[in-house]
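Summary for the lay section of the report: proteins are chains of building blocks that fold into shapes. Here we show the chain for BTB domain-containing protein and then a coded description of the shape we predicted for it.
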Amino acid sequence: MVTVRLSDEGVRSIITRVTDLGEVQVLILTGSSLRPLLGLSALDSGDEDVVAGLKLGPPLELRERRSSDGKVMPFSLPEDEEFWRAAYDAVTGLVYIGAKSLIWQLDLSNNANIMTLLVGEGGEEETVDGPGAIARVDRPFCIVADGCGSLLIKDCGSNRIRRVVLPSAGSPSGSKSPLVITLDPEYAANLWAVALEFASPPRMYVATKTAIYRHDTLPYSTTPPTPAECALLAAGLEGASGSLMPGDPSLVPPLLAGREGDNSRADGLVSGLREVAAAGGAAASAVVPSAAPSVVTGRRGHGSAGSAAPGGPGGRNSAAGAARTGAGGGGGGGGGSGCSAGVSSARFSLITYMLLDSLGRLIVVERDPHDVEPYLRMVWPCGLVTTLSTDFNLTGSEFGLALLPGGWLAVHAWSGSKMQLVRLEPGLQPSLPATAPGTVCGGALGSGGPFGGASGEPAVGADVEVVVGDRSFSCHRAILAARCEYFRRLFQSGFADSSRSKVSLPDADPGAFSLILRYIYCAAMDFPSPLLRALAELADRLLLPAASLTAQRQLLSATCPITVVEDLLWAEGRGFEELLTGLKAYYLANAHRILEEAPHSLEVLMMRSPKLHLELYAAGIKRAKR
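The coded shape description reads as follows.
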């Protein structure tokens, strides 16, 4: 662990961005300035003594355009304001900075450093929805860019998330946000952290002091509303006549980890998780889908939203409701890999910040309610919570995190003067939108790291090594047993292998097993075509029916006249009846194309499986007589 002294002004946020030249830059936000971190090449060395030499550069010369004539002037922070939080949008390259009652957009391209006011006019901190000129924020505690035209913010003391719609690309210079609107649901306790996983669709993680929730879709459409739709929404909010519009607590998804009101600290796992296939024949994810929130509500009021108990679902203004529908502000239900209704045995004391890495793992910093030192935890997509580190020389009431190049994780006290760096994994990277112009921390997303991949480094907290061919994968018994029936039976069997720290799958394909691990840990089913057969076979062997079925259906979709015979023979040999039925139907429907494009395959079919050839021949004759 490395300690780097930064600024006596007090560190508020640390962001890592990619410059116009494709270089990585780390910026430190203090209460009154934005300063670059110098000497980043030291991070690649891994030498802690060298890394300790990082230092701050001079403050960036921020500028703003004068509204009267558009002239560029030095930026001046308004009186009684101070910078609060910052976020980087990896899609647009823009930086967003929140103050006590204001939010700016910062354009660093071509060293212009232009600050544009998006929300607020300064003055008293309030919570008011509407267009940016009349909207108000109250010390935005979290700012997250969603990569599709909006910011998500959480005002101080609030149990609701708000959406700041960003000006469209063609908007005039100096345009403010066309709309700031409060989202459903309303949580049972004040929120402390928000993080986004840039999956497809994006997932949103929300934390109170002691619990973490996962939304499998965003609570709004990812298509930015048009100016007309924003105006309609704003008109609906005006119709609310300043009344508070309560949220709907029924839309809060099940817990991913932790428990509301229990501030003890313990590692643990969600009970009752098993890999299942969905009804109706569709392959499901490894976790039962949740009911993700989808309704957007507006609010116009004063002060913070920190009610201790959720409000009721009633009381919505009809004009605002109609406007919300017109703007397409509902992101559907929770498909994919949602949270199950299982019970989490993990506990958190006081969560103050969290971020997501490229494999969907949450890194969480918290502190004891009676202490001032941070604790670092990791939450896996399946709900497993492990403690990473507790040995920090930092004190504070709130802490922040940032991922730096080289896999370094920066931990800092909010408004503190130093940060501490810990290197969890050399390949550790943040979750970034697929359209981002390159990764921030070097290398390709998902390369190396947590499962003993290209980096060769063991996963954090790993306690079992799975050897597949000539590759080794560092894994966690608890996750394998909870999500895979094969490993659960193995570890509970009492045989010699059940207690060993190394397990072998000598006949399996290492590439397929790597993807199986991504499925077990992250519920990812992005299976590449060349590995579909190996994946289907290995998933079947490991008693993962949904993963095997998904691979088989992808294989069926990818078959063609040239490959269908080989696919038929393979499916018949493995006993994959559903796939075999589908391939037979394809063969019969495309018999003329097969004869023209792959006549040799018919001889192969006759030689290797006369029975299957005869069955298809007879079925073809019957089909021709109809």
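Put simply, here is one thing we learned. The longest strand covers residues 11-18.
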